[in-house]
Design the sequence.
């Protein structure tokens, strides 16, 4: 069982919809990450939160909006997405924001119609 | 800039045999970490093994071991006694040792199939 829980596992939405992805961990980790992964490609970093503050935003379009309400929870709010945003979205956490192994969730498979 | 290269897009191995996945990287950093992650069809990225660049001893984790050659910037993964559950995409990754919010630099991955 994964220690990083992502919901939902699958999401289909239209380009005008607003939805959110949720990620939760209870390992006491203080750094959390969002990645986007296309089929047969490595994950691409989108955002990093360190101690609940956004520390890295890899030039992600504003239609993706991250939120870290507390140290255990990370959300990714989606609005007006494009078909090319269809991908697997992975959440990860690490003990600190330093050179620590990251623990990944199972991901949310997102399809944009 | 850091780059990670995995030159084998696909590999296969017979069950119970040994297979080696290659990874090379380029960096000007002197201290860093290297990782191998596996991603089975279940999608979760699972840490296989981690190597600290300042340690000369190669890391091992049960059937998984690495051959770390710092001067050659090479970091290969050896899987012994391959099992069907080892079938997965394997990603080599680099991370700097300094700073916060450190990010992975991933290779393009090697798809490994274990044949019964």
Sequence:
């Amino acid at each position: 069982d994964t220690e990083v829980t992502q919901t939902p596992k699958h999401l289909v939405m239209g380009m005008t919809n607003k939805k959110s992805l949720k990620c939760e961990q209870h390992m006491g980790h203080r750094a959390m990450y969002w990645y986007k992964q296309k089929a047969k490609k490595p994950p691409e970093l989108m955002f990093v939160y360190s101690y609940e503050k956004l520390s890295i935003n890899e030039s992600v379009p504003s239609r993706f909006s991250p939120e870290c309400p507390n140290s255990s929870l990370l959300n990714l709010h989606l609005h007006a997405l494009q078909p090319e945003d269809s991908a697997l979205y992975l959440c990860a956490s690490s003990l600190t924001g330093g050179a620590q192994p990251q623990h990944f969730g199972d991901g949310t498979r997102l399809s944009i119609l | 800039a850091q780059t990670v290269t995995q030159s084998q897009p696909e590999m296969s191995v017979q069950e119970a045999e040994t297979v080696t996945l290659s990874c090379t990287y380029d960096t000007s950093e002197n201290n860093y970490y290297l990782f191998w992650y596996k991603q089975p069809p279940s999608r979760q990225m699972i840490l296989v093994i981690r190597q600290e660049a300042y340690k000369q001893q190669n890391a091992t984790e049960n059937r998984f071991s690495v051959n770390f050659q710092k001067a050659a910037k090479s970091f290969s993964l050896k899987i012994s006694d391959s099992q069907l559950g080892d079938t997965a995409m394997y990603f080599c990754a680099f991370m700097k040792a300094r700073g916060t919010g450190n990010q992975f630099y991933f290779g393009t991955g090697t798809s490994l199939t274990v044949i019964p």
Remarks:
- The CA atoms of residues 30 and 90 of chain A lie 17 Å apart.
- DSSP finds no helices and eleven strands in chain A.
- The first strand of chain A starts at residue 4 and ends at 7.
- The mean pLDDT of chain A is 92.
